[in-house]
Amino acid sequence: MHRSFPDEPEPRLTAEGEHPLWDEALAVVNRDLAATLPEQPPLRLVAYPGWPDGEDGADGPGEVLHVALANGDWHGNALEPESTPAGALWAVAEAAQETVMGCLWQTWPVCTVHGLGLHPGEEAGRPSWRCAGGGPGDPGHIRAAVGELDSVHRPRRPDRERREDSEGR
Fold first, then answer.
1. What is the spatial distance between Cα 145 and Cα 147, in angstroms, rounded to a whole number?
2. In 14-149, which residue ranges form alpha helices assigned H by DSSP?
3. Taking the CA of residue 8 as centre, how many other CA atoms within 13 Å lie in the half-sphere pointing to its CB?
4. Given pLDDT bands bounded at 50, 70 and 90, which one contains residue 103?
5. Is 51 exposed, middle or buried (0-12, 13-18, 19+ CB in 10 A)?
6. Half-sphere exposure of residue 144, counting CA atoms within 13 Å on the CB side?
7. What is the pTM of this model?
8. Which of 64, 70, 119, 69 has its CA nearest to residue 94?
9. Which of 35, 49, 73, 96 is such that its CA lies 20 to 30 A from the CA of 111?
10. Over residues 57-68, mean pLDDT
């Protein structure tokens, strides 16, 4: 973990179970990370002590949480206080996307149909990954609910032979 400024408070990785609502949401998002970037270890929560002036989103001297890579590096906004599981899942999905893209410099997650980055959206009240589509005549679509990218994305295994289609290709 690194601090951006020398006078910043020291961050810490949180213990599992310390923030149950956020931990549950992060476990769901980590399923998508494992399905799409299997070489990446699970994301973690990192906590910073709140700033005394309260301008950091913390209520007084509390802590500010971020979604971080396993080494504690993070990118993007802090997690805002949330009271519902769906709200927490949406916030964690967005924060995870910011961290992966900002720290690893790669688009994540990616629509396997269009090759475009997915963005957090909602369908039937569930946080979902949404693709903008391929352009005119190819509308946007929900690719999968957050936590279910393994149902639509299978990493290609280099040692596996490709199947031929019905025409022998």
1. 6
2. 20-36, 85-104
3. 14
4. very high
5. middle
6. 21
7. 0.80
8. 119
9. 73
10. 72
